[in-house]
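Hi Q.,

Before the meeting this afternoon, I wanted you to have the flavin-adenine dinucleotide prediction in hand. No need to reply - just skim if you have a minute. The sequence and ligand are here:
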Amino acid sequence: MSTTNKLSKDELCQLFRGFIAPQNVIADEETLKPYECDGLSMYCEMPLIVVLPETVSQVQDVLRICHSHAIPVVARGAGTGLCAGAMPNAEGVVLSLAKFINILEINPQTRTARLQPGVRNLAISEAAAEYGLYYGPDPSSQIACTIGGNVAENSGGVHCLKYGLTVHNVLSVDMLTVEGEKVTLGSDGLDSCGLDLLALINGSEGLLGVITEIQVKLLPIPEKARVVMAGFDNVQQAGDSVGGIIASGIIPAGLEMMDSYAISAAEDFAKAGYPKEAKALLLCEVDGTSEEVQEHIEQVEKLFNSFGATSIRTSQTEAERALLWKGRKSAFPAVGRISPDYYCMDGTIPRGQLAHVLSEMQRLSEYYQLRVANVFHAGDGNLHPLILFDANIPGEFEKTEEFGGKILELCVAVGGCITGEHGVGIEKIRQMSVQFTELELLQFNAIKDAFDPLGTLNPGKGVPTLRRCQEYRSIEPKEINTNKEGAAHG
Amino acid sequence: MDDISTELQQQVLAARNDRQALNIIGGGSKSFMGRKAIGERLDVSGHSGIVNYQPVELVLTARAGTPLTEIEAALAENNQMLAFEPPRFSGMATIGGTLACNQSGPGRPWAGSVRDHVLGVRLINGLGEHLKFGGQVMKNVAGYDVSRLQAGAMGSLGVITEISLKVLPKPAASRTVVWDMGARDAIGFMNQLAARPKPLSAACWLQGRLYVRLSGALSAVEATVKEWKTAELAQNKADEFWLQLGQQELAFFDKDSSKDNAGMPLWRFSVNSAANIPSLDEHSIIDWGGSQRWFRGEQDKLHMESLAVSAGGQVSLYSGGDRSAEVMHSTPEALQVIQKRIKASFDPDGIFNPGRLYNWM
Ligand SMILES: Cc1cc2nc3c(=O)[nH]c(=O)nc-3n(C[C@H](O)[C@H](O)[C@H](O)COP(=O)(O)OP(=O)(O)OC[C@H]3O[C@@H](n4cnc5c(N)ncnc54)[C@H](O)[C@@H]3O)c2cc1C
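Predicted structure with the ligand bound:
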């Protein structure tokens, strides 16, 4: 139970060093420094202590101690997050899962893998490859990001249009509650009785519990995959042809769009042969059996032509396919080369609103005098506008943030939302009240209370904290009348 | 085709005021599921109609009381479908009840469940507040996933008033092949087939025969049928089989026929796809490539639970038997605590479907 006496930093370190190897309890400024932010380095905070436990029971003990002293705990995977979700709390402990890198089991028969939370996303597919299997969700950060972080963010990737997000590919997780108690959510089966807590944990940003083991589904590696690249003179035509492909009944494995800024940055960086004069570029990958791919490639080429593509190129070899993707996959670093800094946004929109949203964004870009490049998971409506700025110019980051906020508001206004895959973290916490009403936010708060009444798991992230009269929130329901079975209500 | 959400909200507020339990009814097609319903009826079926459907966006939004048949008819006009193939229960099932019960058909392991396809919901919580979660776009990670949380909650968290779903194009072609073999071999074989990069869309074994459906591009489906060199089921026979299986209309599901075990309690196992349950398998329907199994018989629930646990999953008493006892798989204490707290966070006075899911909730 929680006590009010505050522990000093030294006392806490001593407690942790009682069961965690001393070098894995970090308290000195210099070694703490790399933990001060995640992939969104504009938001920094030095933690009190970082711990790197090596066993689940050590993690449990860390949680128990923190819980009993009401000390904030911020779980951390690889720190590639883009919403400051893993940014430390100044009075809290960073709980790094970096030591949990073991693939516990790859089961080729059931096509599943059991993983520790610190396993890198790409490592799963690498280990499964010898069985002809792979793990579907493929965030662009997959070389580095961890499966624990993926579950916490419900991460997506280029192939999620066809193969689903993290939430669609996780069978079960072991989670530690804030009190350090271990619970298993989900099973080897495809669903479980009772409330679907597994759905709640996916995308919960470390606010509801700490994930210590994950079981994922694996998919058979397709026989064949090919990509069609098409250049367009205007964004509208490119957007329409995305709709055209979907309407034709094909679900591509990936369907990505880039605007002219992103095209030329990516081409300069990756030399993938992108048409630099094009105003929009589409990459459409189809996969499946050889016959299916042949059939669909022909349909896609025909569709692109009929929607006025100015250039079309279809990969003939695996090497060419990899090259065509290389430009897209390195779009972020490529844009990083043409600007001192860039800020990546993550709104989603109904695809039909694309042309409108892009032209509005252009107007805002002129107003703020900041350039913006767009890469777009076109198939599922997830925009990544990259705002180019220079953090060394006083006031420019503030201006960038304001511009970013306007883009998210625009996404909500056209029926979309403020984040498709990167999460809310600290970064988008203010925009939560653009997408949700106060009552909806209160409902989120109440869910958080159900898991973490003291609010010590990753405080200040994900959902803005509001308080409602606690009278409503007692756990045991009052006596209610359960009679009148079957009586029709007036 | 009406929006009666204001009336529904009034009814919830009145019930809260009177401390009156409510039994939420969609089409009532699944009233045999879960524990015995108690409380005053709150009829959602009047809250009906498709609100928005953009075939090119692959998104459909409908009021919760809309019959599945109406939704599927609208989709069919655009050659689209609910990929999770929900049971329609003679046309009475509503989209709200389908989500609340997390009901999906034979394609589920490959195409996903209703839980996987829900993008957003509106619901009235126990404070009578009409709230909106998720959205009408494919991806949304803002806030907790309250939409998917409704799947399988059986209305215990609130009255769902509106649902947005991802819809998918109908496959261009669909063919069914069969093998005659025993349950044990079939379980192994289904899992082998599923590991191959072929356009599988359903796999089910019953009474000595394994049925495998292939769906997708015509060329891919035809080439696979040829490659697998086994008997093919005539198209009309195949369509009928998958329909009856998905709609729970096979003789096996009969509630009052006089055959063998008919009319006896029906157990649903959700387990590891490759597990053997030797004492039951030969008498079961083994669907979802091995992950979902149906068994009929008078059995001790705890015994069934221990079999399910050894098979890596859970069991529920789907229909029949004693509906006043627990029908869901037992829940560990720690998870009961969390579930009760979540229930209280939506419905602090416990007015929605009390005891429908569990005696303790
Ligand atoms: C270049 C680049 C490209 C990217 N591309 C994509 C993309 O295509 N798609 C996409 O979705 N994202 C992308 N991201 C964002 C990021 O990689 C993902 O959000 C990823 O899932 C984060 O994983 P991580 O291990 O780095 O987690 P961290 O950044 O360490 O943590 C992320 C959040 O998860 C929580 N967390 C981490 N581990 C646990 C655990 N075990 N238990 C509980 N909570 C935990 C943290 O508290 C934090 O809130 C990209 C990032 C970069 C830098």
